[in-house]
Amino acid sequence: MRKKIEFLLIQASQLIALYEKNNRPVPRDTSKAVQRIEWIAASLQKAEVGSLFSVSDNLSNKRQKEGIRNKKHDADKALYDSLIRENESTLETISPSSLARYVPLLETPEK
Question: Which superkingdom (predicted)?
């Protein structure tokens, strides 16, 4: 999931850079969509820091965490894999320009 969020952040920065390159102001909805993406990324990063299941590249830690997760959820690995695939496919369809339509509905929390 972290890779998907990083990809969204890259897309958002490219979108802002494109407006700056063309000397055009960033539309309010686009700006708010980018802020929303940044807020979501910060929220996920904050959750990872204090989480038992924080992201780790260490393979032994990953196996250990997966074992804990499976014990907690009755070892339903098929359900877990299905949910992960569904979440990843949903994140792949999101882009800053697609979020811009929903900005009036989703106000960015104040920092």
Answer: Bacteria
